[in-house]
Amino acid sequence: MGLFGTEYCSICGQPAKGGKMRLKDGAVLCGDCARRISKAYRDYAEDNWEIEDYNKYLEIKRKSDEVRGRFKATHSFGSLNIDMSLGMFYILPDRKNASIEDEDVDLFSFRDICTHEFTLNGTSHSSGLLGGNEQYGYDVFLSFALSPIDLVMSPKIDNITVYTKKGEIVPDKKGYRADEELTSVELIFQWCTIAFNPEYEGTINKPDIPMELTSAMDLFMIDSLDKETAEKLKLKRNALIKVFHPDENNSEYSEAYAQKINNAYDTIKKAIAAL
Ligand SMILES: [Zn+2]
Question: What is the distance in A from the centroid of ligand 1 to the CA of 34?
């Protein structure tokens, strides 16, 4: 190391010694400032962030800490927890005893990701036979990029067991069907990105206003009406209604949500019938 080798943190100005990190734009973070980035994103940040992104991230963290104590999960799927009243979610890291209290568990607002695409995908593994039915494990991943930072996450949110009989998915002992469960997660996530989109949010308490077809299709994740049938639409509606039923969901908006789902359903049903 040369005579002028001491580097100073671009954030706090302290000498950057152990655990320092360099961002894409060359900015240096001291160990303390680097550790404020949750482990899940640190590698990604190093390769992709500029100092501006770091500051935006801290803003997400600040909002996250503000609501941490108030978060009450209305829906949980594996490590994914959603609070519909707050419009926030978090994903628990894959380690023992991880909890929402942990500093590195970031809470995200659906308002921040509402314009970003997400995908739910999975890989299957370890299959076996049980009582004549085939069963296999299925790891579910939720991938998306967070706005305003291009913070890419693709955590594993669940490992579910899928039961099949002659190639068809069948319910488990409790009556759950893996594909229905996944549809619910997908729909609920989609729903939140729409419900908390600032463009739509103003109408959340006015569920009786007829929904525009494009919004309704977004909500039901329908790209084209040509592929949609009344039966498929009804299945999706039922899955949504089930997750928003007051028995399943303690959100203060559950009734408004249910009305809004039916409202969207009617809009799409009419459009399909008119084709
Ligand atoms: Zn620093």
Answer: 7
- CA–centroid distance, 26 to ligand 1, in Å, is 14
DSSP helix/strand/coil, 238: helix
The pLDDT tens digits of the residues spanning 108-147 come to 888 887 777 778 888 888 777 767 778 888 888 888 777 6
- Looking at the fold, whether 170 and 116 belong to one and the same domain comes out as yes
Give the model's pLDDT for residue 114: 75
Distance 80 CA to ligand 1 centre (A): 31
Give me ligand 1 centre to Cα 8, in Å.
8
CB 89 within 8 A of CB 81: yes
C-alpha 52 – ligand 1 centre gap (Å): 15
Q: Give 1's pLDDT tier (boundaries 50, 70, 90).
A: very low
Q: Tell which of 66, 92, 107 closes a domain.
A: 66
Give dist(CA 59, CA 45) in Å, integer.
15
φ, ψ of residue 183 to 5 degrees: the values are -60, -40
Q: What is the pLDDT of residue 29?
A: 95
Full domain range(s) for residue 11: 1-66
